[in-house]
Amino acid sequence: MNLRRDVFQAIADPTRRAILLLVASQSMTAGAIASNFDTARPTVSKHLQILTECELLQQEQSGREIYYHINAKKMKEVAEFIEPFRNMWDQRFNKLESIMKKYKSR
Amino acid sequence: MEQKTKIHAEDNRQELMITREFDLPLELLFRAYAEAKIVEQWMGTKVLKLENKKHGSYQFETTDPKGNKHVFHGVIHEFSPEKRIIRTFEMENTPFPTQLEFLEFEKLGDDTSKLTMHVIYRSVADRDQLLKLPFAQGINMAHNRLQDTANKLK
């Protein structure tokens, strides 16, 4: 299993989440992103590579520069991943509530 | 419809918290957990065993739409009526390790109550995998529906 491509593994890292927040406001080059962190440049590059591999970031060539921008579709998918789990419990508890209301009226 | 269930799952923690407020008196909320025939109704499961006492155990069996049977079981560590249940939970014949559950029942008003489920997993990875299970199943179901539709078109 290639853990590095696991999108949830990717967002578990605080630096990578900071990168996503940064790039969310505007497309940026690797250099501009790295200048926001104290971390060594190669480390930031590694993070960018991981985020790109799992499709949270997309690269765009503009002249000689490569800009990174957010893949909104993928981000949405990730933000909502906990929703089916919550929904499963919500439905279960709704059922509990409606069944018990019948006991109440007896 | 308003969604009243909340999940709190912090990154890199092997636990999560499920909270829910009910328009039910505490007594009725607790009965939904204590009486086998009621558990069967809302959990959609068959209760094979439910011993509500310290050192007691439980065993539930569900049948999925394909007719496969899934068995869940656990041991009860504490059973304090209208207050608390502490128990373990394990899905049989799956790679998921046993989890530990603390269920706290609280009275909010005469007709309202709250349940807090604190679930502890063996590892962060186990928790995350379990959290993703309904997500993954949702994707699979969508795939299957697509496949069914596609097959009908043939």
Write structural notes for this entry.
The complex is a heterodimer of chains A (106) and B (154). By secondary structure, chain A is of the alpha+beta class. Chain A has helices at residues 7-11, 14-25, 30-34, 41-53, 72-79, 83-105; strands at residues 28-29, 57-62, 65-70. In chain A, a hairpin with a 2-residue loop joins strand 2 and strand 3. By secondary structure, chain B is of the alpha+beta class. In chain B, strands 1-2-8-7-6-5-4-3 form an 8-stranded antiparallel sheet, with helices on one face. In chain B, helix 1 (26-34) packs across helix 2 (36-43). The longest helix of chain B has 30 residues, at 124-153. The chains are: A alpha+beta (106), B alpha+beta (154). The A-B interface holds A 8, 12, 81-90, 92-97, 99-101, 103-104 and B 1, 3-7, 9, 11-12, 18, 20, 22-25, 28-29, 31-32, 38, 41-44, 115, 128, 131-135, 137-138.
What gap, in angstroms, lies between the N and C termini of chain B? 39 Å
Write down the oligomeric state. heterodimer
What general outline of chain A do the C-alpha atoms trace?
Answer: elongated
* Tally of strands of chain B: 8
Structural class of chain A: alpha+beta
* Topology-level CATH name of the largest domain in chain A: Arc Repressor Mutant, subunit A
Output the strand order for the largest sheet of chain B: 1-2-8-7-6-5-4-3
Order of helices and strands of chain A: HHEHHEEHH
Helix coverage percent of residues of chain A? 55-70%
Q: Which residue ranges of chain A are poorly predicted, with pLDDT under 50 across at least 5 consecutive positions?
A: none
Mean pLDDT of chain A: 85
Helix count of chain B?
A: 3
Number of domains of chain A: 2
Strand content of chain B: 35-45%
- Top-tier CATH class of the largest domain in chain A: Mainly Alpha
With helices defined by DSSP (H or I, 4 residues minimum), what is the helix count of chain A? 6
Structural class of chain B: alpha+beta
- Report Rg of chain A: 20 Å
The Rg value of chain B, from CA coordinates, equals 18 Å
